[in-house]
Amino acid sequence: LYDGSWARGSLAAVASASAARLALTLAARHGVPAARPEGLGAAVAGVVPAGGAALAALAVTALAAAAGALLGWSDALRAALAVLLALVAAEALLRHCVRRFGGVTGDVFGALAETAATVTLVVLALGH
Prior knowledge:
This protein is mostly helical. It has helices at 6-27, 40-44, 50-69, 73-101, 106-126. The longest helix has 29 residues, at 73-101.
């Protein structure tokens, strides 16, 4: 991803994994229903308080920016932007799935994680 810079590659790997897990946290917030009464979606739908999810998003974005700042101000901005855009993409997919399926399932959670990780990596790759 970042030829010649193990530090930027490491930042990309950690930021993408963190954004993926954060997308799962946001999808498990209060107000997001399960599509079915059984399965992973039913087990985790609505278990995260909305305020806690927002605080987690703020913390992960700030930590990504702080890690990027070790490499320079542009990397700090790029890392924070990558996480935020990953969350926007994951939220768009989440809303589509809730409309389409009536809620979340385990597969929806998997798709959200992959979407967030991919968007993070694409933003970081395009910005360098």
